[in-house]
Amino acid sequence: MSLFQKSVLNKYLKAQDDHKDKVLAAFEKLKLYQKQASDIKGFNEEKFQDGFIREIFVNVFEYKYEAITKDNYNLVREKKNVSDSKKADGAILKDGEVFCVIELKDTTTKDLTKVETQAFGYQSGHTNCNYVIISNFEKLNFYIK
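User: That's the sequence. What structure does it adopt?
Assistant: Structure tokens below.
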């Protein structure tokens, strides 16, 4: 049994046809990053965070990074929780509110599920946050609350 009805799936796949060139271009950028990924092995988490955010979230996903533009940005680093002083490594904003937290680890962290508790702790620190991204610079896991 399918997760989605064929008509629903076809509707959303058809909608992607309008963005096919943009998706393919983003995928090519992602493949370029993957080719260079061997160069980041051995970098500690803090050393490559900014580079990873720029390479993936700015270059591939086209978010507007606060470190690059001071106006109309929707991506920030080191976002502090509303409820306590803990900070996620990054956050994606919508209308100025955090709707996705980003937790980054270095390439020595092979099992990203071990970071879920930490990442979801950051997620719960933001009222309207429903998404979590965890990455070790090689893999990217996406979670929905």
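The longest helix spans residues 20-36.
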